[in-house]
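User: I'm new to structure prediction. If I give you an amino acid sequence, what do you actually give back? Let's try with this one:
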Amino acid sequence: MSIRLRKLVFVLSRVLWLAFFVQAIAGSFVDLPYNYWLGWTPMLGAIALDVLRRRSAASQIQAEARPPVEVEPPVTGRWSALNSPADKVPSHGTHNLGQTYAIDITAEPDDPDHGRPGFAWLWPVARPNRAFPAFGAPLHAVADATVVHAEDDQRDHLSRNSLPALVYFLLIEGVGRILGGTRRVVGNHIVLDLGEGTYAVYAHVQQGSLAVRAGDEVVAGQRLGNCGNSGNSTEPHVHFQLMDGPDLHTARGVPFRWRGVGVPANREVFTAVHDAEQASGKNLIQS
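Assistant: Good question. You get back a string of structure tokens that encode the predicted 3D arrangement of the chain. For your 287 residues, that looks like this:
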């Protein structure tokens, strides 16, 4: 499937989802002039297009697999991995939005006796972002690059790591993300052109934290912004991925390795450092 066709299928899918939700809401107030079962047609069409797009992306990735691209870590300090491609591919259960080899990481406090807040069944329903050590942590360029896209105007919402908040996150906010499109999923984000057909994406960036803008030239290790909790995120964390194009709608995932760290597995705790710190002989991996 060509890039243009993939984008057309994506747009048509979003239009069908929008049509389904609009008629579902309208049907709660007025009698619609068609059969009840006909109202499900847009949703079924959207699901069919999404399945077609995902299968096409999977087949193309398998046919055109690339070796891992080694880059610097996007953060420094002590972190742990979630949804890692070291454990399964696609790491997030989908090839959509170039996520085939994406990874989520969250900061771990230096004192292991005071870990980050865990999942709560009922209370507290939500926690402020400052309760999580990842919130506000600086994000660094993984290589010398050009900033292709940078936005940070979306809000950082409270955590969604309790049962009531998770239900709200999936059912209420989930509808909003479907209607709002890609930017409501990735939240505030940065896209870097690393050269040679490789692009890096940082998602869920903190509102108002950007230190760069589109068109800027950056060097490896330069601060780009801060970790936040915008978009499709249950707690402050960094979503990082490499892709073969700048457009999330059409790009395919590219495997990566972080210099000195590799690809941390799920729940693996690691320490990322800059080149200058590596030269001092500090350990790069801690468990």
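You can read the tokens as a compact description of the fold. Here is one thing that stands out. The chain has two domains: 3-63, 69-279.
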